[in-house]
Amino acid sequence: MKLPSLRATCGVLLALLATQCAGPNGRSTDLSPASWDPGELERLLAENADYGRPALAATGREAMVSGTTGAPAVRAGLEAMRQGGSAVDAVLTTALTQVALAGGAWVSYAGILTLVVYDAETGEVVSLDATYDIPGAERDARSIPAQGSGKPSGRTALVPGFFGGVEAAHARFGKLPFASLFDPAIHFAEEGLELPAMLAGMMERRRAVIERLPETRRALLKEDGRLYVAGELFRQPELAATLRAVAENGADYVYRGAWAERFVETVQREGGVVTLDDMASYAPTWSEPVRALYGEYEVCALGLPSNGGVNVVECLNLLEEAGLRSLGSPAEDAHALFWLQQATNLFALAYLPRVFRDNVVAEREGTLEERASRDWAAWLWKRMAAGEFALTYAPKHGGSGGHSDSVVAVDPAGNVAALVHTINTDTWGETGIFVDGISIPDSAAINQGLMHEAGPGARLPSPTNPLIVLRGGKPVLASGSIGAGLHQETVQNLLYVLDHGMAPKAAIDAPSLLLPAFTIGKPIAQTAAGEFDAEMLEEVRALGQPVKELSGVDQRSARGYWVAIWIDPETGELTGACPGNFNGAVLAD
Questions:
Q1: pLDDT of 20
Q2: Domain assignment of residue 521, yes or no
């Protein structure tokens, strides 16, 4: 008889213990940092203020969490699993805490959430889309004021998905009491934290936005009306009260209760068109992930209607069709780098207006469903190799075939979760709208074209791309990316790990393609200055692909940032990594 693994046994025992220890109010856990080991919180808060470190890595046997930002948030996710929670409990706890630590700057409780989950009990992989809904009364999306127009408008606010996604994910895969997931976020909102210099700098840069409305001044300024400076205690009492209300009443408080009423009132006061009916009808959607068979692996990415998963699957199908792995590593081989750039250019199809897309794909439809198929990849490869596809180059010689956060987790029972959440705009946006301590993103200000194509009342497609990779039906990798170059970063790191056997940290440290520059002509490849060998880049240019090297803030703003956990298929050992550019962490048991 096959005995259960230690990981599975620990998970069952922890869950039973949590049930047996439940108190009269149903709460059996306390994830608050106040209960952590002495000195641990102080150390993690010091790490939370430390940006620009080298990439981080860790190994473990039972459980692991890796997140792009918020070392205390990642620790909160690990605590969730230590107290009997699932991988989904862990990523939700981390995400909730990340927003509080960020002050709603680059992630928001009124933003979006996407999730891919491997269920160890059933062997199934499922996808959750909790992205924005377009208001039903928004019938002229192309006229929404754009960012930089100097016209802050409530029309840039969309129906948020974050809390709906949290509740839906917990209802299906959570083991801990729903309210306990909020413990760490409430702690940091209520007790405060020393403001990191990075966040203080963001506040200074956004001073005009922060000072525009009384609700925002109340949320982000000191009582005397001044900006916080680095090192001062930053508290968010209004936010803490709102989080308590959601923890106690569920997402109904956000979509049908008092918060929904104040949100709609505030947004409409600023010229927006979101209604109470829009809020009440919001529902996250579970779907089948889009999949790509890549060598011996099956990559399971975010399902429709979002486009982020399709972008990844399309690219991997194409690279498989082209036989890219035979060329060597893109970090060392000019031809491999050339074709990787061409393949990753294709994500732009998701953003082309229909009239231009129809011209580019000619006799094909180019729908999201079609782009995820292997047949599409075969057709596309023939056109690319012949130099007949508008978004790519054919080699001249010698060729051959918004700000966000991501968190991934593996629990003791072998469940795996990959989550991305974001405001999908610049820090705090440009409207400066806050409702009961929650920042309201102006995401419609940069998505007018996609909104116009999707139509009033529809779900807005998201470029986020959390994914899980299987081998022989078992998970071996969970990952997620953030940043402008998230698509390029995801694909190249998948190649580094799956084709070339790199550990996640080595993949993060390897040379990276950045978001390409789009001009009237074809895309210009962009890299960070000094990362790739200069002679190799010259060879790529000789093949016909223009390459621009960026430095400083230019390269940071075009980069993607990837978190991942590798699960050794033979030993079960967990190896995780996160980028060091921010204040994230990777922690394990």
A1: 33
A2: yes
